[in-house]
Amino acid sequence: MAYAQVRIWVESRGLVVRRPHMSTAALLHEQELRELGAPRHDWSVAEVRELYGSPLFSLLDRAREIHRRWHPSGEVQLCRLLSIKTGGCPEDCAYCPQSAHYSTGVEREPLLPLERVLEQARQARLDGATRFCMGAAWRSVRNGPEFERVLEMVRGVKELGLEACVTLGMLDAEQARRLKEAGLTAYNHNLDTSDAFYKSIISTRRREERLATLENVRAAGVHVCSGGIIGMGESLADRAGLLVSLAALEPHPESVPINGLVRAEGTPLAALPPVDPLEFLRMIATARVVLPASKIRLSAGRGELDQQTQLMCLYAGANSIFYGEKLLTTPNPEEADDLALLARAGLSVQSLGS
Ligand code: SAM
Ligand code: DTB
Ligand code: SF4
Q1: Is 89 marked active-site?
Q2: Which domains does the chain carry?
Q3: Following DSSP, what letter does each residue of 314-341 receive, concatenated?
Q4: Is residue 79 among the annotated active site residues?
């Protein structure tokens, strides 16, 4: 095809904004990449908002196509979550039952002994989990014996052959480097919501501090796990804004947890209405399109979804579930029910060898 024809063909489909310096080859390459749903870092809020609000079946078709292309095994990963240090957190995250600012009935517990954590990790492995995530209700990591113990936990979990993920609050570059050295697979640190809505949810830290930690994690060569929560009273533009912020990270986070708010008694958000299951599905499908290569994780809030909706989330792009009767401090669906559902649907579960 001559250059002029290519240009007319591509531009008539609105697929590429042609920059004057682009060669035909570059034009075709970019167009091809877009057709494949290649990772992009320039999504706009309006574009993502439109995608989110498109007719449900069109959104599902698009998400499914990208999911099959980028995640052809279709396997579901089972992740086990454990709170290694519970409650009494100085931050005021309005959704969180572990914040010391609210009376939620969560009992404070100091950092667990190493052996207790490894016992749980061994059990998780026996139960079929391939990723073990450890959460601490800290604002940030402090150097000293507790951090040394967390490093031991990471080493122990990795020795079992499991992926190890921790979420410990803010982190400096040296701490990230030491976690990498211990073998950490991924560090979870959520952007949680849009830049604009963030201030109405948390007043004790700035979003930029969150981004700085993500940079430290990335620089250390640890995978970034970052996502957010829906159902906190945010607008649809805020949901789109969260995905735009995640997509602006280069490269995209390897792992993106999508949580539905667990409405914990005593938190300022306890009385909000539950998330509409179809909105949860739309958020997962939109995340799949915007972040094609990332592992999208159907995380907290699954207990409020019926099993059919959960399956639809896996169809539309979710790669994993938290598997186990408890998240950090709140309940999660029964393991036996999850296994039965996956079996009824004929879904394959990721194993340690795969
Ligand atoms: N303190 C660390 C931090 O905030 O990064 C790590 C633990 S914190 C509990 C990890 C994440 O859990 C939060 O960023 C938030 O996205 C999620 N989370 C906490 N409470 C939640 C709730 N009630 N519903 C849904 N997700 C929640
Ligand atoms: C994430 O995005 N979700 C998980 C994990 N990262 C650490 C935490 C969910 C917590 C739900 C509320 C609780 O059980 O305390
Ligand atoms: Fe603390 Fe993390 Fe809960 Fe915020 S989300 S209050 S930082 S434990």
Answers
A1: yes
A2: 1-36 (no CATH), 77-344 (3.20.20.70)
A3: HHHTEEEEE-SSBSSSSB---HHHHHHH
A4: no
